[in-house]
Structure to design on (206 residues):
């Protein structure tokens, strides 16, 4: 996996958070899938690789009360915290590699990841990631993962990625996760390029 925190800190030191290719003012697809999960306002939600993403802003605006944002890059989380101002104290911020982070067993009701999983180019790392999800998500909990689709780029921020069809993405998680819905998104980057994203929304079997 491309887990060099220095790389991602450099990205945010040299680019404004609104200039990185994955920036969106609102993550409409993610928000719709979280809403479809019928998560309660007190549900424990984690945004893996959330960085400086605006998802946390919209989750707070929707009055979710237990939100965790995890990212390798401390600088990205600091950007989000500065943007939120006093509201930032309502969020559990974690600087960590998702493959090594220590989670409480069955800690989360909703696991969200937009564009971390496709950086896992080694099968061993993907297996470790799925093991973390199985450990951290409650039985019956919800897992929403977005990655580059078949028409997406081969690299992002100078790093290789893996592209997925909906079936291939769900296949990485397998039988312990029931596929509820898959969808595609044409993401327009700040630079004017269109990137294909694929999202799978699964429920963890009990």
């Amino acid at each position: 996996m491309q887990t060099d925190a220095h790389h991602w800190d450099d990205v945010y030191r040299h680019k404004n958070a609104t200039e990185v290719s994955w920036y969106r003012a609102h993550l409409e697809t993610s928000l719709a899938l979280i809403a479809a999960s019928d998560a309660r306002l007190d549900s424990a939600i984690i945004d893996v690789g959330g960085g400086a993403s605006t998802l946390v802003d919209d989750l707070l605006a929707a009055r979710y009360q237990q939100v965790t944002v995890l990212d390798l890059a401390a600088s990205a989380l600091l950007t989000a915290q500065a943007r939120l101002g006093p509201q930032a104290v309502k969020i559990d911020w974690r600087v960590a590699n998702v493959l090594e982070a220590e989670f409480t067993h069955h800690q989360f009701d909703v696991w969200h990841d937009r564009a971390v999983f496709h950086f896992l180019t080694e099968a061993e790392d993907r297996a470790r990631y799925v093991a973390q999800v199985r450990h951290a998500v409650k039985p019956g909990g919800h897992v929403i993962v977005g990655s580059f689709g078949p028409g997406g780029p081969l690299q992002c921020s100078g790093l290789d990625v893996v592209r997925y069809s909906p079936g291939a993405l769900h296949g990485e998680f397998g039988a312990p996760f029931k596929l509820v819905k898959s969808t595609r998104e044409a993401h327009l980057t700040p630079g004017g390029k269109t990137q294909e994203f694929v999202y799978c929304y699964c429920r963890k079997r009990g």
Q: What stands out?
A: The chain has a mean pLDDT of 94. Residues 123-136 form the longest helix (14 residues). Helices lie at 5-14, 28-36, 55-61, 74-84, 123-136, 166-173. The first strand starts at residue 44 and ends at 48.
